[in-house]
Amino acid sequence: MKVQNSNLHTNNNTNFTAIKSIECSGLYKKYPNLANELVDTFQRNQKAMDFCKKYDVDIVFHAMRTGVTSVESSMHMFYDDITKCFVRKFFESIFEDGNIQLRLFSDKYNVVDSLKDSTKVLKEAIISNTNVQSTKTRNGMLDLELKLADEDMQKVISKKTQKLQAHEMKIQAKKAKAEAKNDAKNKLKEDTEKLNDSIQNLIKNSK
Question: Are 143 and 110 in contact (CB under 8 A)?
Answer without folding.
Answer: no
